[in-house]
Amino acid sequence: MTSQLVRPENLADDATTPEIELRSEITVQLVDHQASDLGVVRAARVSTVGEIAHTENNTDGYVQGLIKYLMKARHGSPFEHNYLTFLVSAPIFTVRHMMRHRTWSFNEESARYREVRPVFYVPDAQRLLRQKGKPGHYQYVPGADGDHERLVDIARSTYGAAYAGYHELIERGVAREVARMVLPNATYSSLYATCNARSLMHFLSLRTHREDATYPSHPQHEIAVVAEAMEAQWRQLMPITHAAFESYGRVSP
Fold first, then answer.
1. Is 100 annotated as a binding residue?
2. What binding partners and quaternary form does the record give (predicted)?
């Protein structure tokens, strides 16, 4: 499911109540950056040779060797002299997962100042729906027959009722900051998120799953979608740094 418009069933005859949109797509767009492998090298070399020319001894082999050394020895600060800014559109619960990582800078749309759009998340049919095992040591497995269909049905009716109530409160003149309290955490939000490469590597180490990582992580699907999209775009900007990150177990320096 990519997107579907639905009229809230309990208020189907109320023409003033907007249709809700069910969406499974989570988007991540790199909108601004200043990030390169060469920038890491410049930051590292200033500690040993002082201010240096940008073109001095910056062959591909030298850059690769120094970045690998920095990653292996966990000299992290040279990876901080850059930035990447992403525009993310995701359900609120996924945005809150991002905000657990306090090394980012965030600016999120505000439901105090603008009316919330009736757009809500539902997983697509490929999403694994059940957990097997103990907390902290479980794996995700497919749902049983009918699980996904029932999830979508319940989501549709719940989201519809919640947004109808929100819309009624807004129409009555209740402040947006109060009316928003009735909305679910599957409501879509958008935000700008900025970090440096070192912080991003820490985020990726926890929010992606790689069996060969030094510390394999098992993130929730939706935040993993965000992390994978960010990694793909960062890899294009800093391929040597990314390769070193992979080589040394996906541990942030």
1. yes
2. Homotetramer.
